[in-house]
């Protein structure tokens, strides 16, 4: 199996050959973020740490899209959406709403949650199971919906 860093390096070469400037810049930024994190933690990144970096990159672009939309900068919105699609390619397959709801239900049963006061307990047990596979906001909403 190819490591994430090897895949990114290969994609970087492909983007150079294709002269795809957006892909090239985005992949460079991802590689840079991964290398910076590796320097910070002083060891090779494991899959969870790589996932954390990728999620951070994804979140930055989602926030940028929201800001650019508010500011009426449609040119930047389109470019950032392309970057977001590139970042998303490196993330694991996302859970569907039904899969997330099912996972929330089993987690609620596993921790013995009775009501809204157990929200934190459910989220604490749920988050490691969905890391990188679902958005935290979507998970929180699903938990709230099932606890009410």
Automatic annotation (TrEMBL):
Transmembrane segments: none annotated. It comes from the Bacteria. Gene3D superfamilies: 1.10.10.410, Uncharacterised protein YqeY/AIM41 PF09424, N-terminal domain. InterPro entries: Asn/Gln_tRNA_amidoTrase-B-like, GatB_Yqey_C_2, YqeY/Aim41, YqeY/Aim41_N. This is GatB/YqeY domain-containing protein. It comes from Lactobacillus xylocopicola. The lineage of its organism: Bacteria, Bacillati, Bacillota, Bacilli, Lactobacillales.
